[in-house]
Amino acid sequence: MAEDSSITLTLHSLQLPFSNTWKYGILVVAILLLLVALTILACQVCQLQKRHRARKKKKYHSEDRVRIKAENGFWGKKMPPLLLDTSKASRANFKMTELRVGPDEPHSCPSCSTAEDPSTDGGLLPSSRGKLKFSLLYRREQCELLVSGLEAWGLPGRGHTGSAVRVRLLQEVPSRIPGLQCVVQEWRSRVVKNCSRPAFGDHFVCSLRDTKMKKSTLKLEVQQFDKYSRNAVLGEVRVALRELKASRSLAVCAELQKTTKDIVGEVLVSLKCLPISQRIEVGLLKAKTTPTCSTADVYARIDVSCRRHRQRHQKSSPRAHTPLIIFNETFLFHMPEPPAWDCTVLVSIYQVGSDPRHLIGQATVGKSRAREASDHWDLVKKSIQQPVAKWHPLLI
Question: Is this prediction's pTM over 0.85?
Fold first, then answer.
């Protein structure tokens, strides 16, 4: 027994220092692992902050682009009011100065003097769409309207590769449709790439009689293009030509306003819901357009968007471009179940053979659109498997 007790004491004395060594070693390893974990955590936090700052900067740069797309897209927010009073739109907040100069003499705009240098974006508000400078001259002897000196600056958005200006000469047409306009002539300037202050250097000439001046309006839209060849309309400037005097150059230096649509006709559209087969039938019956001197045929393109997913478009057969175009064609599109009805129908009329495509007008029917289009959609939902036809204005 004495011998066993001595062996136990000897083993106990040997275990005590061995056990403490392991305890201290494990503690040191645990501390090292904790330090490594804290270091990794600090690195991850730094990377997360860098990503957040980069994402915030990218969102700030693309904020203007998103806002412009939402305002001008047919599938985004609500469209502007259908009945546009062009006389009110023409009285936008811009500066005009009449200058007594010859038709070929250079002139300048006093409102764009060195005191307010456009290159420094002076006088522009943070929410400004930019400014557009141009000059107008009406030659009474030749019955010609001259548009020249197109220049823009302070345009919002980044990442664009080019800018251009689309010019339309609109004229009021007596009709039962309030605010009906006729596109007398349309031009488009050359595209200026990678320039913060594009000077387009184009001039446009249009034949215009003196008797038509009071009913005519000049509309200039500034567009920007990205690397995917998509254009966004930044804003517009309207000038009522009744303010333009013969043989006097009118220099205009104007801030871009929110783009509005003009009524150029109307189209008769028939809709019929087929819930059993989950389809919607779009009937394109007739279209009324303003008089034009073009002899090219026209065709209609039908686009349907359900649940914000655009389906494959369909086209009509070409028709002669007359004041009253008879189509009488129907198109079938897939439609979700009735509880999920949220469709938008877009009818676009184009000119045949034009490159790029020349848009004559567009009409939109949907639940989230203007009052007339929404009423039509409500009648369709109440009249299952029965066609409902209604006239809708053509906008451009």
Answer: no
